[in-house]
Design the sequence.
């Protein structure tokens, strides 16, 4: 499991290769898409925890969240994506590009907790999911607070 | 495995509940985000098959594709999302909303083949992945041809 997580982190934080095919505008658009779709899935989990709990829906949403975290989004923060490009605005702060070690420090728990969320969600215990959902959301907030403009 | 797929199809094709919280404009934006991010991950798999093959990157991308297919995107095609709304254009054809049985016929193989792609990708054999990637892409194309404007 540790080896798997290490591999995931490596894939997620590296992988600048793939981004070469995308323009800065496309990178911004693509990463915003990933965050938006992940957010929709986080919202579904929350709605399930606050209302009618559907185990299958929660597990599917948690898988999407983990898969997004594991997808190597770091490659979408390439050169020239630190400001508005073409039609794509970005809320990322310039510090994000100047502090890769700090980004990594925030990305590792994000990847770890989303993967744990997928695991806990597959087991289907609502209270365990609630706890792990909160831990996961905290890792989102930690990065937003540091590196995202309001 | 069959039971799991059946559950996934059910979650993916139903689930109008969650969409109630979103406006038609948000539904269109969210589904376009999901397709865009999935497309990025399909492109990564293709680039790996055409160039340097990185097993971990392919497996991660395939997981994202399957998780997107399993996420219940059907809920994002709610009432009022059959045309441009606010700032969100959509390429979906009106027939999509008039032929739910045909949509289901196209969605089932899409979900099945993406999940198979994730499974094959986890095993890591490039030629098997190439074959399954093509089968998966065919299910995308089948729906685009029928229900998406150029």
Sequence:
């Amino acid at each position: 499991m540790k080896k798997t997580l290490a591999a995931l982190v490596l894939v997620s934080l590296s992988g600048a290769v793939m981004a070469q095919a995308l323009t800065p505008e496309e990178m911004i658009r693509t990463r915003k898409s990933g965050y938006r779709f992940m957010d929709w899935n986080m919202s579904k989990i929350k709605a399930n925890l606050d209302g009618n709990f559907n185990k299958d829906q929660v597990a599917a949403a948690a898988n999407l969240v983990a898969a997004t975290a594991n997808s190597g989004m770091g490659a979408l923060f390439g050169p020239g994506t630190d400001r508005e490009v073409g039609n794509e605005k970005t809320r990322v702060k310039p510090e994000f590009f100047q502090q890769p070690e700090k980004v990594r420090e925030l990305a590792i728990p994000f990847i770890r907790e989303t993967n744990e969320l997928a695991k806990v969600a597959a087991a289907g215990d609502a209270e365990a999911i609630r706890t792990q959902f909160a831990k996961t959301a905290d890792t989102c907030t930690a990065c937003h607070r540091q590196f995202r403009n309001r």
